Amino acid sequence: MSTDDTTPAPSAKLPCAPTNGGLAGTEDAQSRHAALLARIAQAALAAGRDPSTVQLLAVSKTFGPDAILALAACGQRDFGENYLQEALPKMAACAAHASWPMQWHFIGPIQSNKTRPIAEHFDWVHSVERERVAARLNEQRPAELPPLHVCIQVDVSGEATKSGCDPLEALALARAISAMPRLRLRGLMAIPAPSADPVVQRAQFARVKAVYETIRSEGIDLDTLSMGMSGDLEEAIGQGATIVRVGTALFGSRPSRTT
Ligand SMILES: *Cc1c(COP(=O)(O)O)cnc(C)c1O
Fold first, then answer.
1. What is the DSSP string of 139-198?
2. Domain map of the chain by residue range?
3. Ligand 1 pocket check for 156: Cβ under 6 Å
4. How far apart are the C-alpha atoms of 162 and 25, rounded to whole Å?
5. Mutation test of ligand 1: which of 56, 59, 232 has the most ligand atoms closer than 8 Å to its C-beta?
6. Residue 250 contacts residue 71 (beta carbons within 8 Å)
7. 246 C-alpha to center of ligand 1: Å?
8. Which of 254, 245, 255 is nearest to 40 (CA)?
9. 26-251, which class in CATH?
10. What pLDDT was estimated at residue 8?
11. How distant, in Å, are the alpha carbons of 70, 106, 111, 154, 167 from that of 133?
12. pLDDT at 157
């Protein structure tokens, strides 16, 4: 998902051995990462797609720098975080230890008074749902950094409590963001309502894809559909996902969040 063609793809054959003296859990990380890449590739082939068109975003929320660096040693370069306060110290710790260029994606809810650190520290933001937040990110993106890659989060769950903009408002928001010079609009992100029924999953992902095609048909250049997680990535890839965001299947189960 780097725009720089010289950056190795996540599947590039890099040595998976720890280079900084024995990272905890490296073998587990290696086998889980390899199994997940195979699962993604299989889903892409089943959908008649080239596996290289689907990128893996490792969702590292609640996991520490050791677990993140163990995956980075396997060639994983893109990591997603939901909570700013948790993410910033982890990102600093990883930067101090990693000898690889890591890309950080913010995927959590954004409070408008917390946009500055996001604009300053992340490469991507998947969870933009309001023009006001986009405008602040645009204003606060430091001039020495490349434009911030942005996805609009769309709510296709039909539940009023879910986050994301109304699909009917996505086109207007896409137009507004396209005009912001310090942001680079890449596509849409969605977190469908959880369902164990593949038919329901598919219908929600298809809805995101339809919004994506509507925006593209208006001449706005999008290339990213960020959808699919540990439990539904096959259905998401079947409906056109270009980034799957995976936590549990890579890192194991998370402690339940109490705050
Ligand atoms: C936690 C999270 C994920 C990963 O979910 P898993 O089911 O653990 O794969 C993906 N996207 C977002 C926005 C998340 O918060």
1. HHS-TTSPPEEEEEEB--S--TTS-SB-GGGHHHHHHHHHT-TTEEEEEEE--PPP-S-H
2. 26-251
3. no
4. 35
5. 59
6. yes
7. 6
8. 245
9. alpha beta
10. 44
11. 33, 13, 8, 15, 17
12. 84
Mean pLDDT by 10 residues, the chain (259 residues): 45 41 64 97 98 98 95 96 97 92 96 96 98 98 98 87 88 98 98 91 96 98 97 97 97 74
User: In the block, which residue shows the tokens 């960020």?
Assistant: 226
Cα distance between residue 164 and residue 110, in whole Å: 11
Ligand 1 center–CA 190 separation, angstroms: 11
The values of phi and psi at residue 19, to 5°, are: -105, -5
Q: Determine the Cα–Cα distance for residues 60 and 248; give it in Å rounded to an integer.
A: 9
Atom of ligand 1 nearest to the CA of 61: 1
Contact yes or no for 163/154 (Cβ under 8 A): no
What is the predicted pLDDT for the residue at 25?
Answer: 59
| Residue that the structure tokens 């980075």 belong to | 72
Residue-wise burial string across 80-99, b where 16 or more C-beta atoms lie within 10 A, e elsewhere: bbbebebbbebbeebeeebe
Residue 206 CA to residue 186 CA, distance in Å, equals 18
- Which DSSP symbol is given to 256? P
Cβ(73)–Cβ(26) under 8 Å?
Answer: yes
Q: Is the CB of 229 under 6 A from ligand 1?
A: yes
Q: What is the pTM of this model?
A: 0.89
Q: What 3-state DSSP class applies to 36?
A: helix
| C-alpha span between 156 and 154 (Å, rounded) | 6
